[in-house]
Amino acid sequence: MSGALLAIRGLEVAYGHIAAVRGVDLEVGPGEFVSVIGANGAGKSSILKALVGVTPLARGSIAFAGQEIGGLPSHRISRLGLALAPEGRGIFRAQTVEENLLLGAYARLRAGDRAVAADVEWTLGLFPRLRERFRHSAGLLSGGEQQMLAIARALVSRPKLLAVDEVSLGLAPAILDQLFAVLSQLNREGLAILLVEQIASRALAVTNRTYVVEQGRITLSGPSRTLAADPRVIEAYLGAPLDDGARSAQEARP
Ligand SMILES: Nc1ncnc2c1ncn2[C@@H]1O[C@H](COP(=O)(O)OP(=O)(O)OP(=O)(O)O)[C@@H](O)[C@H]1O
Ligand SMILES: [Mg+2]
């Protein structure tokens, strides 16, 4: 895809002798909603960590908004407009919701950017629960609220691409409905999203395109609705074809 917002080529990530990512090519176009699905330990988080500069890449290249970012420190990648809501949420439990959100805008605050307050306000509009909890310690929030905070904190930097790792971890279906509804809304408003998700049915229902990762390699990729009907995906990741609700959500997509 020419004009991709994100283009990962031949990415390899290793931890000592463990090859976690073994030559991954992955693209996200402007305004696209893309998911990466795969089993435990397949290498999904390692792809995202390399993307935002948390884990070094052993080999390969990562182009973002036309610029090579492979090997750049994370604060520079963040400034270019790529934000990650990490697996496990990575929030500061002793700090308040407000303080966590302002940490998401640290670089801009330092640069004297006055729009930060408006951007915090925007994230509170997306997640009204966080407004109610604004002065509470993050550690006192429910799991769903903590996930909202992790996403909101990533959004405060007004990224061009939001990467989200395992939204669903430990959350009840009703909370997931809310979180995925916000992600879909953000995407409709033009935000590109790269979603790593273990619950394949959720990912396939909301995204445009999906990559399947197995043992550090992409083994399948294509439009999410095509993959949702692929017998290999159904057998390995869905157990059964998507139910009516998920299918109609998928069919409602452009
Ligand atoms: N910091 C680390 N040190 C050593 N090995 C690691 C480290 N992080 C990940 N690994 C290994 O790298 C491989 C890929 O892990 P990764 O976390 O990227 O997978 P994942 O697809 O995100 O899994 P999960 O679904 O459990 O989150 C696994 O074999 C894992 O054990
Ligand atoms: Mg992971």
TrEMBL record:
ABC transporter domain: residues covered: 6-240
UniProtKB keywords? Amino-acid transport, ATP-binding, Nucleotide-binding, Transport
Transmembrane portions of the chain: none
Q: Name one Pfam family in it.
A: ABC_tran
Q: Which PROSITE patterns match?
A: ABC_TRANSPORTER_1, ABC_TRANSPORTER_2
Annotated GO molecular function terms are:
ATP binding
> What PANTHER family does this protein map onto?
HIGH-AFFINITY BRANCHED-CHAIN AMINO ACID TRANSPORT ATP-BINDING PROTEIN LIVF
Q: Which family does it belong to?
A: Belongs to the ABC transporter superfamily.
What name appears for this protein in its UniProt entry?
ABC transporter ATP-binding protein
According to the entry, what is the taxonomic lineage of the organism?
A: Bacteria, Pseudomonadati, Pseudomonadota, Alphaproteobacteria, Hyphomicrobiales
